[in-house]
Amino acid sequence: MKFHAPTLSRQTHGPVLAALILLAVLLVLPTGYEEALVYQSADRVRAEVLSTDESTIIDTGLVRSGEQRCTVRLLGGQFEGRTVDAVNRLNGSLAEDKLFAPGDIAFVTVSHDGDQITTVSMTDHYRIDKELMLAGIFLLLLVLFAGWTGVRAVLSFIDTILLMWKVLVPCLLRGWNPVWVALGLVVVLTGLILSLIYGFERRCLAAASGAVLGIGVTAVLGIVFTDLFQIHGAVMESSESLLYAGYQHLDLTQIFMASIFLGSSGAVMDLSVDVCSAVYEVVQKRPDIGTREAISSGFAVGRAACGSTTTTLLLAYSGSYIALLMVFMAQGTPVEFILNYKYVAAEIVHTIVGSFGLVTVAPLTAITSGLLLTKTDLGRGADACGESVIAP
Predict the structure, then answer these.
(1) What is the mean pLDDT of the segment spanning 206-222?
(2) Which chain regions cross the lipid bilayer (predicted)?
């Protein structure tokens, strides 16, 4: 069998068209929460800091309290161009407080009564332009390196973000079952991403079947062990604030369960692509290979990949808790107390249950690939770079 690039291109026409249609729908789809803005009589605009006054700030060790007075020029909204005084209130929190300097661009909240400005509050430094620049550099390098495969990767990346923001989050806020909503989203994303890699052909079906089965195992184990560990969903950051904002009906524990398999789904898809592609290449080189032998080859690849991928998952989950671990060590907290602590137990569930999905997706994908790819003639060609780039 020979590689034919035009065949691969034709195979991906359908998935690309479907992804573009989905993108267009998501862009115009309302979340239903556009009118939920807290500050209805206020504008949030950019402002340039002209001068600052720190004379009323009180320093008590590491804690800073009081107010920083700023003179700013508004760069947007109905009062654009006006120079006004603004206040930056310090709450004694290093994580939340910020100080401004002349020349900074800030987000400010302008409260007004008709055409009269009542107060101007400093919100935070303006970072959106830098975030867009960072994202633009990443996407540009991706397209330059991977070509049309990179374009498909960008498309799946944007669709994934919009699905999370426009579908997942609003459904959870409305009180829909988090586990079923997240499972549905993962299935859609799996089909979308893998079809953009392979096109609508047997490899897509083989990899997607293995990935969905592996995610299913992760979902079941996440539900079981969250209950056994007696973990409440309030361990998630900002979850209690959500309850106090008027969403007491939400089941935070089920949202936590959904976050377990949602967080590991990217690594599961990546491993399913690796195993499926390896089995495909073996079958391409040995068209006469039997199903059992092809599955055995997939198992061998899966064993090698599981170790590094599981460690990657561990580092991804534990990285945000380095400061907490340092506090435990600095205070001489015994290891058994650390492991029993609720937040640590929650991360253990995240990491180990997510790793269960990785360990199971490898053999499951090997089986589905062996069954599907050794039966009939296969779709031609695969861009190996694309397989590693698009899979999240």
Answers:
(1) 93
(2) 12-29, 132-158, 178-200, 212-235, 255-283, 304-328, 348-373
